Amino acid sequence: MKRRAATAIAVVGVVAAGCSLSDGDGGTQQTPTVTLVTHDSFLAPQEVLDAFQKQSGIKVSVLKQGDAGSLTNKLVLTKANPIGDVAFGVDSTFASRALSEGVFEPYTSPEADRGPQRYAVDPEHRLSAVDVGDVCVNVDTNYFTTKGIPAPETYDDLADPKYKDLLVVEDPATASPGLAFLLGTIAKYGDAGWKDYWTKLKANGLKVVSGWEEAYTKQFSGSSGKGPRPIVVSYASSPAAEVGDDGKPRTKALLDTCYRQVEYAGVLAGGKQVENARKVVDFLLSQQFQATVAANMYVYPARQGVDLPAGWAQVAPLPQKPQTLPADQVQAGREKWIGEWRALVQ
Amino acid sequence: MARAGAVTSGAPPRAGGSATRSLRKAASPRTARGLGLALLGLAPIGFLVVFFAWPVLAIIGRGFAAGGLAVVLKDARTWELAGFTVASAAASTVVAVLAGLPVAFLLARVRLPGVGLARTLVLVPFVLPTVVVGLAFRALWPDGGVLPIVLANAFFNVAVVARTVAGLWARLDSRTTDAARALGASPWRAFRSVTLPALAPAVASAAAVVFLFCATSFGVVLILGGARYRTLETEIYLRTVDLLDLSGAAALSLIQFAAVVAALVLGGLARRRKEGARTGAGGARRPRGGEWWAVGAAGVVLALLVTPIVALLAESLSTEDGWSLAGYRALTSTGEKGALQVSGWDAAVNSLKVAIDATLLAMVVGVLASVVLVALRRSPAKAARGLGETMDAVLMLPLGVSAVTVGFGYLVTLDALPGDLRTSPYLVPLAQALVIIPLVVRMVLPVLRSVDVRLRQAASTLGASPLRVWREIDLPLTLRPLVAAAGFGFVVALGEFGATSFLARPTAPTLPVAVATLMARPGELNNQMAYAACALLMLVTVLAVALIDRLGRGGVGEF
């Protein structure tokens, strides 16, 4: 009985100490706090956020809301009373929905002409490009060296019987790299040709899985998972995470199979702190923040003249001629294409 | 609520009252008591209305407003989806029941070394992140498909069956079985004709819960089904999160809702038919004769449950260059290139805190609801009993509605409350509590109901107030099952991913959310750390369950 009493006291102690409601995110400080609504992949070093706070007096509170699609839809649903002041992470695939729903208000950042302007989607400047992240086919270079066959290089190569049963892709309905790859093939082969191309891929032993995690860490032979397939749809930057102790990359992105996704930031219409929100957009475009995006989010800075991490130039350079589709075309076609793709590949 | 006022007045007569006197006469002097009950009932109802019904109806309402529901409802593919969802969930439920029964026997009736350990271990699958389990099953079935979906969903839920049924089984009067045996029935016959029917309420109750969990399962279906096998849940997610097709999602939600209500009604009927199994002295002993077969079957089930867990531990230790503890060491960090904003340990501590809050909240709401339900059910008024049964079913609904529907519902409603809760970290325990409350009710209700009415009547006759009766009679008799319910709720909260991933702040992730974040980033160390975090989650679970089982030991603990 005594022991049970002791256990009970221990439990009560844990409960009393545990209450998560007692420690909210803190303090009654007078610092204005701007809420940055973003996607799950957002990552900024705390030092950089702290430095911004010191310099501008603005504290940035990060609110992650799922992937780019989920983020966009949540912003649309809450546009009458936004859940934050500024948003980052709406990408070129979803930009057109956010714009037509009036989620963002116009703001031309003074930093925008340092490069981000190249990727502008909207004449009213409601969105500013922060980074670009290309989705490319990655290959396990060791596999092809060992087998003594050249690695594939183009979209057409992937349908070559020489590479039968080697490719794994993500489902465009459930994974954004999968959708980007599909859009890349549509941009490449056009409305008339993409289905033929996928029919060939299917005949060539294509494997479809639902998420990037499974494709890259379980199916792909070039990652730590040592899966069975040496060709995978991933990102242009992925090889930077697969550099061995000898400094040599184990994988390579095929730069002729890339589709460009641009990620944007903007001031949310109807937010309570427009002035401060604008400063946060400036911050996202600043040299200071742009220098961190490659190492932390595996994307490329939109700003010109920002150095990539050491080694990226060789291992994971920015693709020069990626495929692209205009945002409004993606918006109009997405659901139809996914439906057609499903009917074709499944 | 006026009706509820009349309800309790039908409760056991106090000083010399006649049990048969008309309700109308009885009502007026005891309105105060009825009012108290109504107020008690308001708390759980209010909670569910604000944090469940309102958000869900608001988001479905938007779908209605957009129109086009009929198109989806008329589409043959919609009904294929619905058929597959119901059929696969039913199949998983059958597998979970078949696998759970021998384990329940082991836990309830067998005294062998290691049974206590089995009791704890069986709960571990429940907290495992779906992405991890999905990938483990995918390793065994590289092409995915229906079979691994069914088995994976069953894998998560064997514990629900085993522990619910064991709870009743342990209290089952063994003399009835002994009598059957003495009359010449074989052990199998005695089990089939005496034990099994007596266990039916618990089996039905567990099966209904398992069915709801399976019908709304998301992660494993996505990974194992690929794009070929989809369910209502994955389609609702896709339409809401990716396509913003709220009318399509609303149409599918309505079908999901209908399926869930049908399952609840069936479960409720099965429970009612067999109400009032004789309970008495049960007791565990060494198995003999044919019982060893059941013990063997339980052993096989446990071995199968442990296999993915062992595979996962192996994964957390293996690297390109052999075995290593790097993943575990990394738990003190924020992962490779700071994949997380806090360390693995911080995530564990946060998991515990949130789960404790969620459990406390769910216990308050769930126990209040159970007390009201029992009072309604004991009422002689038919309408009150009907109200009780409706409320009982309504309380289960949060298990059967998609987390994404609730999550998006919060976004379009909760800003109307003071303090704009939509994105508040306080919502995490609230949302977890929503999932736990139905389980607490399912576990507490039968125990409260099994309290002998005569004891309460005696206390009343001796002049105890209703509150005093509850404190002196109901509470002591049900304390241990209450602890057990809290324990199970706690475990569910620890493992909850769907709602939590929507609401948790990156500065305060729970362990399952941290695992998912780590899995979604490249780098071997992140992957290994994800598996190490899973191992940590299992360890936390095992310790919590062991502690709770110790507190509730010897009681009528269901889970």
Structural features, described:
The complex is a heterodimer of chains A (346) and B (559). By secondary structure, chain A is an alpha/beta fold. Chain A folds into 2 domains: 29-132 and 261-315, 3-Layer(aba) Sandwich (D-Maltodextrin-Binding Protein, domain 2), CATH 3.40.190; 134-259 and 324-345, 3-Layer(aba) Sandwich (D-Maltodextrin-Binding Protein, domain 2). Chain A contains 12 helices and 11 strands. Chain A has helices spanning 2-18, 46-56, 68-77, 95-100, 141-147, 155-158, 176-203, 212-219, 274-285, 287-297, 312-315, 327-345; strands at residues 33-38, 59-64, 86-91, 104-105, 128-140, 167-170, 207-209, 231-235, 251-253, 259-268, 300-301. In chain A, strands 1, 2, 3, 4, 5, 6, 7, 8, 9, 10 and 11 form an 11-stranded mixed β-sheet that branches. The longest helix of chain A has 28 residues, at 176-203. Helices cover 75% and strands 1% of the residues of chain B. With 559 residues, chain B is mainly α. Chain B has helices at 2-8, 23-27, 31-66, 69-74, 76-109, 115-121, 124-127, 130-140, 146-171, 174-182, 187-215, 219-225, 232-242, 246-273, 291-317, 326-329, 344-378, 382-400, 403-413, 427-449, 453-461, 466-495, 498-503, 511-519, 524-552, and strands at residues 318-319, 322-323. Chain B has one domain (2-6, 33-552): MetI-like fold, CATH 1.10.3720. In chain B, strands 1-2 form a two-stranded antiparallel ribbon.
Observed structural traits:
heterodimer, A: 346 residues, alpha/beta, D-Maltodextrin-Binding Protein, domain 2, eleven-stranded mixed sheet, 17% strand, globular, B: 559 residues, mainly alpha, MetI-like fold, 25 helices, disordered C terminus
Provide a brief overview of the structure:
The complex is a heterodimer of chains A (346) and B (559). With 346 residues, chain A is α/β, with parallel strands linked by helices.
